[in-house]
Amino acid sequence: MRVLEKAPAKINLSLDVLHKRKDGFHEVKMIMTTIDLADRVELIDLPIDEIRIVSHNRFVPDDQRNLAYQAAKLLKKRYGIKRGVSISITKTIPVAAGLAGGSSDAAATLRGLNRLWNLGLSFEQLAELGSEIGSDVAFCVYGGTALATGRGELIEHINPPPHCWVVLAKPTIGVSTADVYRNLNLNAINHPNVDGMVNAIQNGDYAQICHYMGNVLESVTLRMYPEVANIKEQMKRFGADAVLMSGSGPTVFGLVQYESRLPRVYNGLRGFCDQVFAVRMLGERNSLD
Ligand code: ATP
């Protein structure tokens, strides 16, 4: 038996950090939405008690460090499953890019194993398991568009934003999320208006969505890597309606409402970055079937 799952990337339309908690995590308030840029996760049932990772990407670990491996291991342990699985990951999402690629692979593994092993678990149960693997995994289990709070694992669904295009540009650098949080000075940042963004999305107001885009982590990553600020500038110059860094970076995304404007932004960026994508905003939730 085998099952296939798509593992879509996410972007943060708004990302605020409220404070550092006693447990060391940061309390966040952010809007996440899925985009049509996805890894492919294929799961093949093994009659032996073993988890195998197959990935032909040299930046992706093929052992217990892989988040998909950790997802399978947790599910097996929690539900006493003695069968094994071969997890084959075809990466399209750039690695260490602020697009939650690893988290989405883990979430796709949870959804896929739920089907492969007929576990009958709900989204909520899978998201709960996911949050033990990483802060973004719970959101990636559901996909769609959501307000995420806590350390990112408390999910409130909201309507998808109105249709638009997303151009993504990732410079060659990889950014460590832990480093960015370590260097964040909470006393010297402008907090984005996340509630304003929720209202803008609920009202389907594209201009207001552009207006309220903001990410506190830019204050760190743009200082550490000036090329990220440069890419933001270029994306604006080539005509994106609004531009922001996703997560802890370094990927920069720009929203483009009209398809006719897309080639100029996309082609303009290809001169600056090795990885450039033009995709649709998805915003719809995953299914468990
Ligand atoms: P986030 O936006 O959630 O902070 P990210 O997009 O910045 O995540 P990932 O692509 O998930 O980062 O990769 C971060 C690190 O996780 C990589 O350096 C890699 O070694 C490790 N990793 C573990 N599993 C995976 C996976 N399935 N795909 C990619 N990277 C993985």
UniProtKB/TrEMBL annotation:
Domain GHMP kinase N-terminal: 66-144
Pathway assigned in UniProt: Isoprenoid biosynthesis; isopentenyl diphosphate biosynthesis via DXP pathway; isopentenyl diphosphate from 1-deoxy-D-xylulose 5-phosphate: step 3/6
One Pfam family of this chain: GHMP_kinases_N
Keyword Disulfide bond applies: no
Keywords for the protein's UniProt record, in alphabetical order: ATP-binding, Isoprene biosynthesis, Kinase, Nucleotide-binding, Transferase
Keyword Chloroplast belongs to the record: no
The GHMP kinase C-terminal domain, residue ranges: 198-273
Catalytic residues as annotated in Swiss-Prot or TrEMBL: K10, D136
Reactions mediated catalytically: 4-CDP-2-C-methyl-D-erythritol + ATP = 4-CDP-2-C-methyl-D-erythritol 2-phosphate + ADP + H(+)
Enzyme Commission number: 2.7.1.148
GO molecular function terms noted in the UniProt entry: 4-(cytidine 5'-diphospho)-2-C-methyl-D-erythritol kinase activity
Binding site for ATP: P94, V95, A96, A97, G98, L99, A100, G101, G102, S103, S104
Alphabetized NCBIfam families for the sequence: ispE
Family of this protein: Belongs to the GHMP kinase family. IspE subfamily.
Task performed by this protein: Catalyzes the phosphorylation of the position 2 hydroxy group of 4-diphosphocytidyl-2C-methyl-D-erythritol.
Protein name: 4-diphosphocytidyl-2-C-methyl-D-erythritol kinase
Organism: Metabacillus niabensis
